[in-house]
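User: quick one - fold this with adenosine monophosphate bound?
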Amino acid sequence: MKIVESSHEAYAHVHHLRCDQQKIGLVPTMGALHQGHLSLVERSQAECDVTAVTIFVNPTQFGPHEDYGRYPRTLEADLECLSQRSVDLVFVPQQPALYPAGYSTYVEPPAEAELWEGQCRPGHFRGVLSVVLKLFQILPATVAYFGQKDFQQLTVIRRMAEDFNLPIRVQGCETVRDDDGLALSSRNRYLSAEQREAALSLWKSLRWVEQAVAEGQRDVANLEQTMQQKLYDAGAEKIDYARIVDRESLASLSAVDRPSVALIAAYVGKTRLIDNLLLDAPGPPDH
Ligand code: AMP
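Assistant: Sure. Structure tokens for the protein plus adenosine monophosphate:
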């Protein structure tokens, strides 16, 4: 496994492989790797000739009062884990390699980024898209793998790739969960045993809405109200949003009458958690 800190070296390596007609999979991460990240790596390894992983805690996507400083950093364990899986290349830039003195160019995010996470975390998607675009340039891969766990992030990255004609395929991958349904997240390690139980409120609320839709409930206002109540009842302390939206545009809906997605961001203690679930409404409307 090759470990590279320099952008030039990373580019030269991947560019060379690309010229050699190799299919290259890219898995961008912020480290503190768990099975969710590793599922992306496994998918890339199954589909590509070469797999490159990046580990970089990107400062520009964190707000001033967010957890950039205390975000878990476990580089040694991450590299060990990737080495065991025979990943080909790991790019681990230091901050000045991506943001040298005088750096000032950013991507203006698309309309889908203005909603939900974008409203709660101003500047977040500007930071995400800027670093993702840079990583796509530095590691000119064939396919990039992202988790549906960050549904809105996946949507805006897809949109950027399309709008900027980027020569890379953006592949979404299913959310990996613990046995009880909790979506794996690097931030779960902030949770005490009691808080972990409360964190299950997101999954319980999503499962409830899925069931309600399957039973024919279509009214989004009613569904959202009960989703929020279920979240509080099961231990969430503050809700940023708990919404049912159009799966493509992420716009609000009045009825679940098309492919939709339920999106939640909520706090347990000081830890902000997000999760989502795709909803399909094939059956009859409200009765
Ligand atoms: P992060 O390190 O949190 O920036 O995540 C890196 C990538 O892993 C992103 O594409 C995430 O959507 C994805 N990811 C994080 N958690 C999960 C999960 N539980 N299941 C699948 N993918 C995930």
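One thing worth noting: DSSP finds nine helices and nine strands in the chain.
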